[in-house]
Design goal:
This protein is of the alpha+beta class and about 250 residues long. The chain is about 20% helix and about 45% strand. Helix 4 packs across helix 5.
């Protein structure tokens, strides 16, 4: 009840100004190193799946590597999600990437939707002083809660994305230096129970750091380097074994 009453009131001038500064800092990020942690529903227990990677927001390139004995490389290149083929499949097909699926419908505006949500639909749950890599920082935890009806296209897009993924609760942590510079972000989403079917995501945490990192090697693959499902001899899709059960990845 306390949370409902608190968020029923609009933020004050000081909180609004801080959220605006945070949104500006997030918007200014062009590239970042990523650490992603998924919790996936298994038949007997939930399973943690970890990734690392990089993002280039301006060029709409997001590379992730599934960590494990046999790392799996995926690349979201604009509207397409690709998986890097094994050396054997590359030799057999003459291609480097396999087209897996389309990216989210809001792939082009997703970053702007996040910034707009921080600026207009976030509230600060708590703030605390911490040390990050030996530096004093201020950590702010935001709760993002879109409205049922949104006139602004970016806010409407963020609301639709939250609904599409079945997100029940979305928080966004930021670490700011004493001068207001952004050092780290952490987005954490928990899904509704109705969406937690076998092989589906229970929660996801995406951490961003090392902002401005050079990613010149991260490139859009040439069309002729992508194997598509309708091509002859297309490689099979990837599956992940969870508690002895096959789950698509």
């Amino acid at each position: 009840m306390k949370s409902r009453l608190r968020f029923a009131r609009p933020p004050g001038a000081e909180e609004t100004a801080l959220l605006g500064r945070i949104a500006d800092e997030v918007e200014a990020v062009t590239t970042a190193r990523l650490a992603i942690a998924l919790v996936v529903r298994g038949p007997y227990r939930d399973v943690a799946v970890d990734f690392d990677g990089f993002s280039d927001h301006k060029r709409h390139l997001h590379f992730t590597r599934l960590l494990g004995p046999e790392p799996v490389h995926r690349l979201q290149a604009g509207p397409d999600v690709l998986r890097r083929l094994s050396p054997e499949d590359q030799r057999e097909t003459g291609r480097s990437w396999l087209w897996e699926e389309p990216a989210s419908p809001n792939w082009e505006s997703e970053r702007a939707e996040t910034v707009a949500s921080i600026r207009c639909r976030a509230r600060i749950l708590r703030s605390a002083d911490e040390r990050l890599d030996g530096e004093e920082v201020r950590r702010h935890t935001l709760l993002i809660r879109p409205r049922r009806r949104e006139a602004d296209p970016l806010l409407a897009g963020a609301r639709d994305s939250i609904r599409r993924h079945g997100i029940k609760r979305l928080t966004y942590d930021v670490w700011l230096t004493r001068t207001g510079r952004l050092r780290r972000t952490r987005e954490h989403a928990v899904m509704f129970r109705a969406h937690r079917r076998l092989g589906r995501t229970v929660s996801v945490t995406i951490e961003g750091r090392d902002f401005g990192i050079l990613v010149e090697d991260l490139l859009h693959p040439a069309p002729e380097d992508i194997l598509r499902p309708d091509d002859a001899g297309a490689a099979p899709g990837l599956t992940v074994i969870i508690d002895g059960q096959i789950s698509p990845y």
